[in-house]
Amino acid sequence: MPSTRGVYIAYAMQGVILLEGIFGLFIRDPSIIFTAFIGFFLTCIPYLIGRRIQVTLPWEVNFLIAFAVFLHVAGYSQQLYIILYPYYDKFAHFISSITVAVLAFVSILLINRFSCTKLARWQIFFYIVIFTMAIGAFWEIYEYLLDTFFGSYLTKLLQHGLDDTMIDLIIDLVGGIIIALFGTWYIQKKTLAELTNPMVGDSQPECEL
User: Fold this and answer.
1) Residue 161, SS3?
2) 103: phi then psi, degrees, rounded to nearest 5
3) pLDDT tier, 173 (very low <50, low <70, confident <90, very high otherwise)
4) How is the chain split into domains, by residue range?
5) What letter would DSSP give residue 82?
């Protein structure tokens, strides 16, 4: 991974997430500890997978992942979900949906690069949207379970009824559509090699979308 200022910015964001976990240890709040350290682990997954399959994601993607996770961790540990409700929650969900959609776009580029699977642009569009919505649904289940088991602790609630959940899912849909539109437009401007060489080098077979 190139030693650029951006890489260290991504690392710094991960460090802030760890600090939230330490804060949870200090005040002995198991829900903050769980959320922060699980969040930190999630930000490490791209690095672990990248080493395994020799793929280096752009630092911007790693930063976006860490920033999205931090928003949710800080929103929970600092009660920003409640203090700034509903604006903070919706902003965090929008950033998260954009992040997930970007990961979906990157993954479909890599799938095509490694397997030469040629998907039509409309298929790529729906793959990004459906992937984003699926992760968004899993996140709502996570929030429900966290509220169920830890909701009474310091009166922190992540969900505020059906309307709140549905708006979150709609925001996920909007974020997915935005990146899907941008992604399907962007792949017309560059070749697959130009898009993926910075991540995998030029040793893999080149295919066109």
Assistant:
1) coil
2) -65, -40
3) very high
4) 1-78, 84-209
5) H
d(CA 106, CA 201): 15
* Residues 46-58 pLDDT 10s: 888 777 777 888 8
H-assigned helices in the chain: 5-27, 30-53, 59-77, 80-83, 87-115, 121-150, 162-186, 192-200
Q: What is the pLDDT of residue 127?
A: 95
Full-model pTM:
0.84
Residue 120 zone, left/alpha/beta (φ > 0; ψ -120 to 50; rest): beta
Contacts of 101 (CB under 8 A, 6+ apart): 128, 129, 131, 132, 175, 176, 178, 179, 180, 183
Cα(6)–Cα(178) distance, integer angstroms: 24
pLDDT of residue 129: 97
- Dmax over CA atoms of the chain, in Å, equals 54
d(CA 97, CA 32): 22
